[in-house]
Amino acid sequence: MKDNYPIIPYLGFKDENLKTPITFPAQQQKYQPGMEYEMNPKPIFDNPNYVPSKKLENKVAIISGGDSGIGRAVSLLFAKEGADIVISYLNETEDANYTKKLIENCGRKCILVPGDLRDEKLSTYITDTTIKNLGKIDILVNNCGVQFPQNSILDITSAQLRATFETNIFTFFYLTKAVLPHLEANSSIINTTSITAFGGKKNLIDYSSTKGAITVFTKSLALSLADQKIRVNAVAPGPIWTPLIPSSFNEQEVEIFGTETPLKRAGQPFELAPAYLYLASDDSRYVTGQVIHVNGGTIV
């Protein structure tokens, strides 16, 4: 695979850690949301050349699915910019502990809260834990999700349909409702939607539907909270190399994952995280109800 790791030309870095794979070895994990430590190659979640500028100094952020993948990259970048982080995750203990260590190495606090967010009471517990230990909440990143590819709608069982909707959109409602009473003016809510919300995907009908719901949830909530000066935006990733990929697609799909984009490769989590930082910081103080697309050049 050595020749398959070109330098990222538009960043101009010569750091071996920032070479991005064009294709991936065949691999598959049994259970979602997947384990990052089992992936080959590991996702690139950190840009070692990044220079922080205190954009989130002394802010507090709650990030669901913050243990790995996109969530890990966002958690670490927020910590570099001065935020303390609360990470909600399902059961990926090894990944979560590693992310916590990375955040603490930045000199910031990190609280881990495991559990299934489909239970609404967990959102209340996360919120109460954050207030008790960190005193406030400034940023909420709704980022957890699952996907179960099926070739036909006829193959989507009622159990799968419930699991997809309850994980991908119900949890966003639950956590937002729990956190909202503690948010003040200039706070930020950021939702992870997807390119599939805009173009669909034939083998991800239920997943794409939830991402469409997240997109409209974002726009409607932004209108609802505008008078309170709480901003609500979303990021729509294209194909990003995260644990969700080998834990949901088959080996053949993993091998060519992301090569259909104009840039001919999947994105890495560190390439996505700055979009979340922009929406979390005062740089986007006049931005609400919007979606940032980070998808390798696909026109949507």
Uncertain residue segments: 1-15
Report the CATH superfamily: NAD(P)-binding Rossmann-like Domain
CATH class group: Alpha Beta
* Order of H and E elements: EHEHEHEHEHHEHHE
Q: How many runs of DSSP E, i.e. beta strands?
A: 7
Name its key features.
300 residues, alpha/beta, Rossmann fold, 7-stranded parallel beta sheet, 7 strands
Protein model, in words:
The protein has 300 residues and is of the alpha/beta class. The protein has one domain (56-294): Rossmann fold (3-Layer(aba) Sandwich), CATH 3.40.50. The protein is 35% helix and 12% strand. The protein is built from eight helices and seven strands; from the N terminus they run βαβαβαβαβααβααβ. It has helices at 69-80, 93-105, 120-134, 158-179, 196-199, 205-225, 251-255, 269-280, and strands spanning 60-64, 84-89, 110-114, 139-142, 188-192, 231-237, 291-294. A seven-stranded parallel beta sheet has the order 3-2-1-4-5-6-7, with helices on both faces. α2 (93-105) links the parallel β2 and β3 (110-114). α4 packs parallel to α6 (205-225). It is globular. The two termini are 32 Å apart. Mean pLDDT is 93; it is low at 1-15.
In short:
The protein has helices at residues 69-80, 93-105, 120-134, 158-179, 196-199, 205-225, 251-255, 269-280, and strands at residues 60-64, 84-89, 110-114, 139-142, 188-192, 231-237, 291-294. With 300 residues, the chain is α/β, with parallel strands linked by helices. It has a single domain (56-294), classed as 3-Layer(aba) Sandwich (Rossmann fold), CATH 3.40.50.720.
